[in-house]
Amino acid sequence: MQLHSMWASYPDLEKDLKDVLKTIEKNIQIRDKRVNQNVHSLIHAGGKLLRPAYALLMAEIGPDYERERAVSVAAALEVLHMATLIHDDVVDESPLRRGEPTIHSRYGNHYAVYTGDYLFTVCFKILSKHSDSIQNIEFSSRNIEKILMGELDQMRMRYNLNVTVKEYLSRISGKTAQLFALSCYSGATASKAPRHMAIKAWNIGHYLGMAFQIIDDVLDYTSTDSGLGKPVLNDVLQGVYSLPLIYAMREQKPAFAPLLSKKSEMSDADLNLLLELIEQHQGVEKAFELAQKYTKKAQKEISKLPEGDYKEILERLTNEILTRKI
Amino acid sequence: MQLHSMWASYPDLEKDLKDVLKTIEKNIQIRDKRVNQNVHSLIHAGGKLLRPAYALLMAEIGPDYERERAVSVAAALEVLHMATLIHDDVVDESPLRRGEPTIHSRYGNHYAVYTGDYLFTVCFKILSKHSDSIQNIEFSSRNIEKILMGELDQMRMRYNLNVTVKEYLSRISGKTAQLFALSCYSGATASKAPRHMAIKAWNIGHYLGMAFQIIDDVLDYTSTDSGLGKPVLNDVLQGVYSLPLIYAMREQKPAFAPLLSKKSEMSDADLNLLLELIEQHQGVEKAFELAQKYTKKAQKEISKLPEGDYKEILERLTNEILTRKI
């Protein structure tokens, strides 16, 4: 079982994450062999496993750490993430995910829709098997509901030139940050952390998720196809305008309108011009600065957590993923 | 609030079902006004509400009937049903549902996929709020998982001329019958029915669901567009071969193969020929006979339930819906 290479320098966490994948494998058994194969490839296609990693680390802050429970909760969150990825790929009509053909592109929307649904249910199945209270499940489902509401919000804002920074932040808060926050919170409650500690974990996850998503969105404007394994400027073409573009548009909207009005029909020349305009208005730099603010907030909250080996790892990991090269 | 006219003759149940719809309304709040509107229309578009009705009736067999809990569980099951309908419409590319344009046809796959996901989560949220044990949630999620597996199986069997009666029954058992069974079971456990009674309720739901789905499939071959509010022979065109066709093909497969090989390109003349062949081999009659067998099994099990007003209603309702005109 091969994890993303980044985990080699976190041997204990790497071992736990391998067990997370084993738990996921055990819980996903689809009778259609081809689809089963495809989902299992997705499990092993080198996803970063950040959400389960944070859940596992946060499981060390409570008084009642039980490895199996922590691993299971982490697995449920990764399965939820996989479900949203599969449905995102249907919606975005993405041909590739982690360098592999997506389920919808290989087998059609049919399979992708139901496979995602199936994974949502697997997530709840694992959660309910390992939660010790209905309240936890209710809390999780309320939050997963918010994540999906974030997806619907993103749809609603597509191709909207007037989208504001505030709206952008609210959208990623409801999507990525919500899932990071839920992961941290669920990790903490899996070890019966007291309520105020679980809320701290939630906040850390929120800041992490905000920073992570802003950086991810910046990468859509800065990285090349080969480096990222997915088409660059994909979001822009899909009408999902993220922070670098929003910051730049704030300076000179009239220059952007004629380009963006071509929607998914923008030519390579249009895209190059768009990138130049964003550079001219320092959209990427400004977005990156905001990401750094969130990173610092996360780091500050992490520094207040109880001491322990896990805390050092938490600091190192956060530093590593949130200072990705742009 | 207008329910399907069939409920007028069941005034108590009608009152409870109205509260089921109110509970659903209260729990579904989508910020996108248009989508919210569309989902709320779906709630009121005259769905038969059979699953919640059976859940409500079965809630009377346990010793601890609590109206609010029974209504909530019934609502969760109808929300689950709505989620699967919305995703089914994406997969089948159906333009209409209950006489209204479907979400995917009006707003695109994007909205339909996420709206369905959102409803899945709402179902779990309601269930967890009103279940009194994790075991119930776990049981529900395991069964919802099986329903989705049934959907995936249906996909796998599409356009397969060699599909057997056994495979067909296993497919509808995993899909419709599973949801009817879960509805009856959940109703029973909502009033803390002892395990052996809950299992009885499960079995009744299973038989009901089998009969209901076979009759529904028969209607695809016998009813006209206006009567059913959806295109007739839709399933055949989508490659979903159901019981009347399977029975007829068993008699003379070579006659069907050239027609069916045209898949969704079958002309009106082809479809008429297909109907004639099915008539010739009495596909509809044989399917209807099997439905009656399941209906009788359900009725027999219902007759063994503890006496009470609910039981009479259960018998009348079952008689009414399972002797629909074909």
TrEMBL record, chains A, B:
<keyword id="KW-0479">Metal-binding</keyword>
<dbReference type="InterPro" id="IPR000092">
    <property type="entry name" value="Polyprenyl_synt"/>
</dbReference>
<keyword id="KW-0808">Transferase</keyword>
<dbReference type="InterPro" id="IPR008949">
    <property type="entry name" value="Isoprenoid_synthase_dom_sf"/>
</dbReference>
<dbReference type="Pfam" id="PF00348">
    <property type="entry name" value="polyprenyl_synt"/>
</dbReference>
<comment type="similarity">
    <text>Belongs to the FPP/GGPP synthase family.</text>
</comment>
<keyword id="KW-0460">Magnesium</keyword>
<dbReference type="GO" id="GO:0000010">
    <property type="term" value="F:heptaprenyl diphosphate synthase activity"/>
</dbReference>
<dbReference type="GO" id="GO:0046872">
    <property type="term" value="F:metal ion binding"/>
</dbReference>
<protein>
    <submittedName>
        <fullName>Heptaprenyl diphosphate synthase component 2</fullName>
        <ecNumber>2.5.1.30</ecNumber>
    </submittedName>
</protein>
<dbReference type="GO" id="GO:0008299">
    <property type="term" value="P:isoprenoid biosynthetic process"/>
</dbReference>
<dbReference type="InterPro" id="IPR033749">
    <property type="entry name" value="Polyprenyl_synt_CS"/>
</dbReference>
